Amino acid sequence: MTSDATVVPVVSAIMIFYNGKRFFGEAIDSVLAQTYPSWELLLVDDGSTDGASEIARDYAARHPERIRYLEHAGHRNRGMSASRNVGLQHSRGALVTFLDSDDVWLPEKLVRQVATLDAHPDAQMTFGPTRLWHGWTGDAADAAHDMLRSVLAAPDGLYRPPEILRLFLQGEARTPATCSLLIRREALSLTGGFEERFTGLYEDQAFFVKTYLKLACYVTSEVLDLYRQHGESHCHVALRTVRHSNHRPTAALTDLYLWCARYFVRERVSDRTLWGALLSQLAGTWLHRFGPRRRA
User: Fold this and answer.
1) What is the pLDDT of residue 285?
2) pTM of the entire structure?
3) pLDDT tens digits along 117-145
4) pLDDT tens across 198-228, in order?
5) Long-range contacts from 266-272, C-beta under 8 angstroms, 24+ separation
């Protein structure tokens, strides 16, 4: 008889965390509540100091057949990309997904997305819109601000590469919330994982540029995850410190586009439409930040 510990799960869920113990248990519980049975959860500690490490170890001790605790050597803080890559290195499932430690999956998230990939064997990944979740507070006034974060205008279809990348660079598509993704492990080997030079801001966009360039994606209209909106999230902290802006280009956005240009060169991208869209975005951020040079 095979023990539970040796059964290879179909889905590997990777949850990185750095502190944030306030919402951590709720995020883990939303994985435990999944109606799909064959999964493992890897909790990757990015050097937490607020007690979140103890919470993670406790869950792993109580659910050893499903949950594993991982950390960097010396309990170092190495950033979001490096932490997700550690999770990828230790994951076993044929399918991989992600959940941030302050977000929540709906109970049918995995069962619906596994069914989508089963129904569309040409798709190497799938995702859909995410609910921007203000109503987690229980306040009706906050819930009234809930809204959907859509990826593109025409979901429920298979997009072959690099179509979504073209739409993204032309400002007609977004990258999805990381918690919305389910991707085939074999496809991940084509992307090289997460770019570790992006320790936080735009780390997900860099990853999705790589997947958009190379992978076929089935985009759905199903909402299966809740992206919690709160003042201590990484995005909100970046807004407060002006490293990120919803209204104007920043140095970090320019850096993303410069990285993208180098990545295109490395991957020998020759598509003129892609290059034209990228250079247009790069020129726009450059001019917005520095403006035209004045003549002496």
Assistant:
1) 84
2) 0.90
3) 999 999 999 999 999 999 999 999 999 99
4) 988 899 999 999 999 999 999 999 999 999 9
5) 267/213, 269/213, 271/162, 271/166
